[in-house]
Amino acid sequence: MVSKYFRFLTLFIFTLSAVSVMAATRAVNGVMIDQAPVLEVTNQRHGYEEIAYNLTNTTDKPREVSIEIEGRSSGYALSLESLTRQVTVPPNSTLRANLFKPYLELRSPRLLINVQGTVVSADDIGLRAPPYQGVQYGSPYNGKICVLLSRSIPGNAIKFYRAGDKSNKITYNYPSIPLKSWSDNWLAFSGFDSIMLTPLDWEELSARTRKAIMDYVALGGTLTFCGGERPTSYKMILSKELSAQYHGFGMILYAPEAPEKYSHDTWKKLDSIWGKTYNTMRTGINSFHEHNPVGNKFEVVKKDKAPAFQLFFLMLIFAVIIGPLNLYILHRKKKRIWILWTTPVIALAFSLLVVGYSFIAEGWSSKVKIASFTLLNEKTQTASTLGVIGYYCPLASGSLTFDDSVEIQPYSSSSSHGNSYSVDWSNGQKLSGDWIKPRITSVITLRKSEQRRERIKIVSVGDNNIRIINGLGSELENIVLRLPNGRSYRSSSAIKPGATATLLKLDTKGSPLPRWLRNDVFGKDWLSSKLNPTGRTCFPRGTYMAKLADPAFLKTGIEPDELKTYCHVFGILAEGGVK
C-alpha cells in the first residue's frame, strides 16, 4: 500500500517538475513565448493563414524579439522560404505577434525565435512549428469549397447536403477557439469561401471582429446566418428558405433552419454562391496556362524584349574570334603563348558588349502596370479594392512593400515553378525573393480593405449640369454620376485633385449595380486590363463611377520608372443614399 502511494507521489512530482521545466524553457531572456490560438484553415486553396504568438516580457526593460519560420524550396512548387516578424515588447507587458502566411508551399518548416540575440528553436521551448503545407495545382474547379462553421449551429455537418457530389466538395472547418478569440484582421478569414454563424454568434463577436468579417464579405466572401427571424433588408429570395443581400463584392445570406433541413434547391444555391469566391480567387494564382485572363490580357510589355536572335548571332561571332581567328593570328605572329591573356581579354570584351547590348535593347527602367477596381462607400468611409499588378524589371528591384491590410498572391506561369518567396511582417508586408525576377514579367493579384475619407462633394445642382469638387486625391480622367433624384451627369474633361468642375446632364436609366459588382467585376473582369466600367452609364441612384489617372487606392510596392494605370472607383455618395 505504501509502495503504491509512493509511486503515485513520485509520478506526481515528476509531472510537476516536467511542467515547471517546460514553463522555464519557454522563458528566453525574460520573455515568455506561447502559441496564440488562431482560426485554422483545412484544405486551404487561397488566401492567408494566421500564425500568432503571445510574448510576455517579465523584465523592466523592453525586449527585441524576432520570429522566423523557415521553409525549404522544393524546386517544383511556389515555396515560402521565410516568414518573419520583429517586434519590441514593452516592459512587464504581453504582446501578440501576428504573421499571415500566403498560400505557398511550406516545406520542412522550422521555427526560430531570437530574443535580444539569444536564438532558440521550437523544440527548445516546447512549441510546435507550423505544419507542412502543399500547394494544389490544376483547374480551379476541382478543389473543395472551404467553409468556417460555428460550433453553435445545430446539426451535424457530416450529414449536410453536398449537391450529390460523392467527392465531398465542401470542407467544414470547426474552430477550436471561442468566438471572442477570433481575429480582428480580415486576412485571417481570407482563406475561407464562406462563414456560417447564428445571430447570437454575431452578437458575441467583438466589434473589431465583426468589422473584419464585413471587410471579408465586401471583398468577395460570403456570410451565411442560420436561424433567427428573417431581416427585412434581405429582399432577394433565392429559394424557399434562402434569401440574400449584396454587400460590396460579396453576399450576406440568411437561412432560418438548421443546415440539415435545407432543401435540395437551397443547397444548389449555396454551392453556386460559395463556389464563386473559390473559383475567382483560384483563377488569380498558380499555373492555369495561357487561357487565363491575367496571362492572356495583362501584358506589362508588348513582347519579350530579350534580343535572343541578336545575342545568338553575337555569340557565334564570339566563338569564331576567340577560337579559330585568335589561334590563327597568334600562330602567324608566332606568339601562341599570348593565348593565356588574349582569351580572357576577348571574353571580357564580349561579356561587356553582351551586357551593354542587352540594356540598350531593353532599357534600364522598371515598368509597372496596375489595374484596380475600388468600391468606395463614402457613408461608412470604407474602401474595398481588387487589383492586379504586373512588373518588368531589367535589373533586380529588391523588395515590394505593402501595408498589412492587403492580401497578395503570386500569379505564376509554368516556368515559375521552383520560385521561393519571403515575407516580413515587421512593418506592413515586405516581399522579397522571387516576387519580382529580373527580365521576367511578374504578376501579383491583390485584395485590400481600409478606412478612407476621400469623397466627391456636390457644390450645386442645376437643370442641365452640376458642380462637384474632386476629393478623391487623384486626377479624374472621367466620371459618371447619378444623383438620388435619378438624374445622371458626365464630365467633359479631366478634373484635377481638389478642383471644382461642371458635369453635364446625361440621359440614362438605372441599373442593378450590386449584382454587376458581384458577378461581373469580382467574378470576371477585375483580373483583366480590358476592364472599362466607365463605358457604362447606368448606375443606381446616389452613386458614381470614375477613372483615376493614378492608383490612389492601391500602391505598386516599388517606385517604377514607367507606370501604366487602369484604375476605377465606384463610389456611394455620402450625400444621398442608393435608391
Q: How would you state the average pLDDT, rounded?
A: 81
Uncertain stretches? 8-25, 285-293
| Strand order, sheet with most strands | 16-20-23-18-17-30-29-26-27-28-25-24
Find the count of extended strands (DSSP E, 2+ residues). Answer: 30
Q: What assembly state would you assign to the polypeptide chains in this entry?
A: single chain
What general outline do the C-alpha atoms trace?
globular
Helical percentage: 10-25%
Please state the structural category: alpha+beta
What is the makeup of the main sheet?
12 strands, mixed
First-last Cα distance = 83 Å
Number of helices: 8
CA radius of gyration:
29 Å
- Sheet-strand content, in percent, reads 25-35%
Topology record:
Elements: H1 2-25, E1 27-28, E2 31-35, E3 49-57, E4 63-70, E5 79-89, E6 93-101, E7 110-115, E8 118-121, E9 145-149, E10 170-173, E11 194-197, H2 199-204, H3 207-218, E12 222-226, E13 236-237, E14 243-247, E15 250-255, H4 264-283, E16 286-287, H5 293-297, H6 308-332, H7 339-362, E17 367-377, E18 382-392, E19 400-402, E20 406-412, E21 420-424, E22 429-433, E23 442-451, E24 455-461, E25 465-471, E26 476-482, E27 488-490, E28 500-506, H8 513-522, E29 543-548, E30 562-572
Parallel strand pairs: 5-21, 9-10, 9-11, 11-12, 12-15, 16-20, 17-30
Antiparallel strand pairs: 1-2, 2-3, 3-6, 4-5, 4-7, 7-8, 13-14, 14-15, 17-18, 18-23, 19-22, 20-23, 21-22, 24-25, 25-28, 26-27, 26-29, 27-28, 29-30
Report what the structure shows.
The protein is α+β, with helices and mostly antiparallel strands and 579 residues long. Helices cover 22% and strands 32% of the residues. The protein has eight helices and 30 strands. The chain has helices spanning 2-25, 199-204, 207-218, 264-283, 293-297, 308-332, 339-362, 513-522; strands at 27-28, 31-35, 49-57, 63-70, 79-89, 93-101, 110-115, 118-121, 145-149, 170-173, 194-197, 222-226, 236-237, 243-247, 250-255, 286-287, 367-377, 382-392, 400-402, 406-412, 420-424, 429-433, 442-451, 455-461, 465-471, 476-482, 488-490, 500-506, 543-548, 562-572. It has a twelve-stranded mixed sheet with strand order 16-20-23-18-17-30-29-26-27-28-25-24, with helices on one face. The longest helix is centred in the middle third of the chain and has 25 residues, at 308-332. The radius of gyration is 29 Å and the shape is globular. The protein starts with a helix and ends in a 7-residue tail after the last strand. Mean pLDDT is 81; it is low at 8-25 and 285-293.
